[in-house]
Amino acid sequence: MKRDHAPVLPGEGATDYARYMRTDELLTLQREPAAMVHRDELLFQVVHQSAELWFKLAVAELTEAAERIDDGELSEAELLLGRASLAVRLVTDQLDMFRYLPPATFQALVPAFGNGSGAESPGWKQAQAASRQLDQAFARYLTDRQIDLRKLYAGSPADPVYRMAEAMVDWDERVSLWRVRHYKIAIRIGSHGPTGTQGSPANWLAKLIDHRFFPDLWQARTALVGGPKEPSGIAPDAAG
């Protein structure tokens, strides 16, 4: 029996795949060749637009993870946080595409950006807010159950609370690695002057590399082995 491939879903598109994924709309969100100042605008937009989608997913996972913690469902929260961390790893990996963007090409693209800046990314801003909510939810969990972080880290890694703390550290580390890669790529393609140059955004990016969303977790781990205190992070208004 021949399968009927006629679309049954509402919306635009010749197939149900196109209608469900909204590919007709999605693939028109990049500038048309005739409007481009350089052909590599496509590369630049695809990397950033896909990053926004991965951040959207990460924010959804972080938000629900915080809710699960409040409900006492740490195992479910841990799994969600693992998915969020993987999303940021994929955002980081795709930055490798910018290795194919020479400094001269980037400078040719600059007029197309207007006054736009990566610091204005809505996905990243939402990820910051969701990370703070997650931190607050975990702090409430520890306080309500009178759990001491140092004692927690001296205990079994199989403890669900220990595993949740480590999932949060993984998220923090993934974000830090993304910042490092972002910083290195920015220097490589010449979008920022070198660190130390007065007024260079690179100075701002470099400061963010050591920022921690969950400084108490890092400090507890360090204190356990008698090392120096971890920095408590930078001021919220400089968190990027």
Automatic annotation (TrEMBL):
Top-level lineage group: Bacteria
Keyword field contains Transferase: no
A molecular function GO annotation: heme binding
Family matches, as InterPro entries: Trp/Indoleamine_2_3_dOase-like, Trp_2_3_dOase
The organism of origin for this protein: Micromonospora pallida
Protein name: Tryptophan 2,3-dioxygenase
One of the GO biological process terms: L-tryptophan catabolic process to kynurenine
Pfam families, per the entry: Trp_dioxygenase
Keywords for the protein's UniProt record, in alphabetical order: Dioxygenase, Oxidoreductase
